[in-house]
Give the backbone structure.
Amino acid sequence: MDWFPLLLSLRVAALATLITTVVGVVGAYALARSRFPGKGLVEAVASMPIVLPPTVLGYYLLVSIGRNSPIGRAWEAVFGQQLVFTWQAAVLAAAVASLPYCLRTATAAIAAVDAGYEEAARVAGLHGPRLALTVILPLAGRGIVAGISLAFARALGDFGTTIMVAGNIPGRTQTMPVAVYDRVQAFDYATAGTLAAVLAGVAVVVLLGVRRLERSAL
Amino acid sequence: MTLDVDVRAQVGEFRLDARFTLPSGLTVLFGPSGAGKTRLLRLLAGLDTPLEGRIAVEGVPFCDTATRTHLPPHRRGIGMVFQHPYLLPHRSVLANVALASGHDGRAARRARAHELLVSVEADAFADRRPHQLSGGQRQRVALARALAGDPRLLLLDEPFNALDVRVRRQLRHLVRDQVARTGVPTLFVTHDPDEVADLADQVLLADRGTITTITAVDTALRPLDE
């Protein structure tokens, strides 16, 4: 049994979740607590990965980070190699695909915080990042953690977007879902079944954790 | 300290017109529900913006629509106790009070918070979380938090409404003691005549959005006796 796909998937999902957490929570705070022109458009664009077919999302990402794109050229200039068809591209794919799950859940959680807590804290002298970190985000904490958990599960299971931008290179970019597909194509159902069972097990653990968080929030 | 208020505000159909100079001591803002009492406190705290007018402390404007000045709540140096205590559930009682202290350094903030908890007789549960306290205990802590920043003005918005009569009486005495101890000018909102009689040095009357009359306690309560 080759454990590389599992280890790569965990690394990709962990790094993607890190990106998703930072971008998602900061973005959620801005969306929930401020008004600005085009806010609806930003929300719609940020949610597109949920409704777009993963291969379409992957196509747009491939065009955005390919060798001829500004991002692709900048990456190559700094790191001396192309971004597409690397494990780093898989991280980017997983982060983009999972972002809306964190963003939407965290936005709803932050918007649901009773405004009275914020007002009491502001009168008591808190403002800016200290207000966000000590009052708003902890009060929305369970919802934010639930969003991060869902994003991790989505990142771990991404197939379509990942295969479009990172390919299926054994030992380099082959994540667990891609490996399941690869093993089935090779009629190696025993390995495919084991990999699928591990992925399903992780998904169940994450969903049970999310359910527990949601119940404790009631 | 002098607080000069001359503001108009509009919320839907409701119009507020407030014009007064707050005297020192404990002033009770008295009037029926819907008279604009809470609205006025929100303007003073900077949580709402007036349609027009000026609020100034010692001649320095908190807000002035003529010059487009609006000092945000955290820069006004006000302590406020709300109807709901709004203590952070994920922090201990001590940490809740320490958060509002303007002192430099964690140790100094916690020492100041402990000192205040002693003064409101809430130090025994300093390490507990707010949900482990009774309603009266929570409002004691909220009062300590309001005093933690050494405010130049203390606002209390019907803070004891949800409490039983005995606890309300205890907390009224506590407020009186704290105002006497700190000397901070205080505006206490209520529609309860007992609280007026128990607390007020003078009364600011609120009537259907007009808040302009400062009067003696006897004068304010006389119409209720007739």
Remarks:
- The longest strand of chain B covers residues 3-11.
- The domain at 3-77+151-225 of chain B is CATH 3.40.50.300 (Rossmann fold).
- Chain B has a mean pLDDT of 91.
- Chain B is about 35% helix and 25% strand.
